[in-house]
Amino acid sequence: MLKQLKFAILAVALVSFLASCSNESSSNDQSAENVDNAALSSVTPNGTVDQSALGEQAGQPADANAPTGPTTTIEFAETEFDFGVIEQGEKVTHVYKFKNTGNEPLIISSAKGSCGCTVPQWPKEPVAPGAEGEIKVEFDSKGKRSKQNKKVTIVANTNPSQSFIYLKGDVNAPEQPATGTPAQ
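Predicted structure:
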């Protein structure tokens, strides 16, 4: 009798397990079908894929950095500065001037250099429509050598939400003593 009870419990457990696997499979099939339908509905009339529509249908925002409120426009007097040739260890500072050319206050939420050697400072207060502002960027050449091209990414309530400014130049590094054993 005990043997039959163990067998019955094992049979019920096995049937339950198989039933749950079957439900998972149909759930995965439904999920795959939804992705296929989303992909098909994202094809434009000229045969290209509309990536923004595909992301929205998959439950992802079209642009994670897209501003949620009113947008404006920003115009830089220059987007690239060449600091020329400097010696390793020197610091270079440059000020990029910009103007809010839109009809809404410009809010810069962040500015980030492409590495720790490039540090931007930006206005934390909104810049009124028609007003001008500055972003000060400092490049520290310590440990750097040869050609340098640094990018600063600015995120603001503009469309697109990211703007880029660049700092480039050459860093002269002192000659390093030869290491190893001399040839004989």
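Summary: The first strand starts at residue 74 and ends at 76.
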